[in-house]
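User: As part of a screening pipeline, I want to sanity-check one entry by hand. Below is the sequence and the SMILES for zinc ion. Please return the complex as structure tokens so I can compare it with the automated output.
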Amino acid sequence: MSSNDKLFRIVGGAQNYDWGKLGSNSTVAKFAKLNDPSLTIDESKPYAELWMGTHPSVPTIEPTSKKSLRSLISEDPSKLLGDEIIKKFNSKEELPFLFKVLSIEKVLSIQAHPDKALGAQLHKLDPKHYPDNNHKPEMAIAITDFEGFCGFKPLNEIDYLLQNIPEFRSLIGEDIVSQFHDGIILNPSDDVATNKKLLQKVFSKLMNTSDDDIIPFASGLVKRTISEPKLFGDSLCELIQRLNKQFENDIGLFCGCLMLNHCHLKSGEAMFLQAKDPHAYISGDIMECMAASDNVIRAGFTPKFKDVEVLVNNLTYSYNPVEEQKLKPDSFVRASGSGTFNLYDPPIDEFSVLQSKFDNVSGTATIKGLNGPSILIVSDGEGKIRLKGDESSTLSCSEGGIYFIAPYVDIELISEDVETPFTSYRAYCEA
Ligand SMILES: [Zn+2]
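Assistant: Here is the complex for your manual check:
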């Protein structure tokens, strides 16, 4: 361990899920190798996730002592978590958040997460499928071009697809299709509750169709993207054909491609996934931050358990244009000096993420102490990090470097070279 125990380097753990990007093409593999040069990258393996936090199944390690971050925290929780965080989240060893890098080659399962009340209820009734009683808010910040599904499409778009795509229309059935068409009121201020009920009806009919019964509709849908592409538009055609190669004739072609917003994020853009809103990641590289929980209700593009009844009965059925699903960053007033700062601050207690950037600028930024623990990862370029006013604490840091920062300490980020970028993301929780 370094002389200074309020700011120190840590090493995260890479995970090889089959949807990850292969070998050194994966940002996860690249960061993991830069973070821990002793690691050998297997070019035939997908590198999907890099975990940074205190989750016991993939420990984050302090490299000098070889101790896990979790055990270091448990040795001195007041210093590393702070008493306010210990009291609020009722743990002396666990961070309230888990921070990750994801490199996505193939679509992940379409899913939603419970809020706190539903999480507690599901855990009580079905602890096997819902392993804890917590909610699981998630936020994704793109570090390369990213695409995902996020929330239901506006109702007029779903109505257009029901009216014009014969496979979707016959799968849902004339009766529900015309109830939806006649009943939706396109001015959302008029009668949102009725609109949501109609949307739920369509979704419920779809999700209660067995996987075997979906197959002929799905294969017909894919053929129609080739025979009548104009019905769909270019980007939806391409998406259906691409995802069908990953999950052939899957229900996700309907509940994902035809019902959910297809959201594109540029580097630095973010989306916050509200509790009980359906979503899935499709491709790209992101920083992801989430509350420490494993509660997932799945809907499509997955071989895992689908809890259709819980899913259909509990979604919010919010429907919004894709731009409204994005989380706009705020300015950050507790930084001064050089560099620019963007704060991604979703409306939950467990985490926020601060982006800091030095683009064509050198100098020092001072960031006031935060009232809780944080983890910082350098995503691009290089610079230095130290405790304010303590030269001896200086650490050189570059792409893939990961650091733990204790609560209440002012730190400095230093960019020494105008030509070299220095970009980092810092996840934190404040009481
Ligand atoms: Zn999720």
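Points to compare against the pipeline: Residues 111, 113, 138, 273, 279 surround zinc ion (CB under 6 Å). The domain at 12-147 is CATH 2.60.120.10 (Jelly Rolls).
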